[in-house]
Amino acid sequence: MIQVMWELVMSSEMIMMIPVLRQRRGRSFARQGDAARDRQDWPHAAAAYRNAVRLIPKRTDLWVQYGHALKGMGNLVDAELAYRRALSAQPFNADTHLQLGHVLKMLNRHEEAAFAYKRAYILAPAWQPPLAELNNYHIDYRNQVTLPTN
């Protein structure tokens, strides 16, 4: 009887219903994803991050890591979706705009990539990576409007 109860408690449906268990299990998957990412084991990293975002979808950092893993596997369309999901919750993250630009460039969607790089530049005008990408596109970024700092 105790075994049956334990199996019910630990079932994936039950984990989805209990926030504390979802958070704990999601963090465990995130750690597995981090370890796989550090080994550049993209398929295992993507699977772990996919499980993590399923359990704790509000963690935008995990959506970005999921996008990185998908990009590392060459799954560019899903990487784009992961980055866009992160941006929908945190639209002022310059690094995520930069990563989205990289994926769009790899998909040969250069106009969209340049737009993502411009957003990254506007959000972080002193940061060199978006400037380098904009220079590659020969875009005059100096006349862009920057956001106020306060």
From TrEMBL:
Sorted UniProt keywords: Repeat, TPR repeat
Gene3D superfamilies named among the record's database cross-references: Tetratricopeptide repeat domain
Domain of life: Bacteria
InterPro entries documented for this protein: O-mannosyl-transferase_TMTC, TPR-like_helical_dom_sf, TPR_rpt
PROSITE patterns documented for this protein: TPR (PS50005)
Pfam families: TPR_17
UniProt repeat feature TPR, residue ranges: 60-93, 94-127
Protein name per UniProt: Tetratricopeptide repeat protein
Source organism of the structure: Komagataeibacter medellinensis
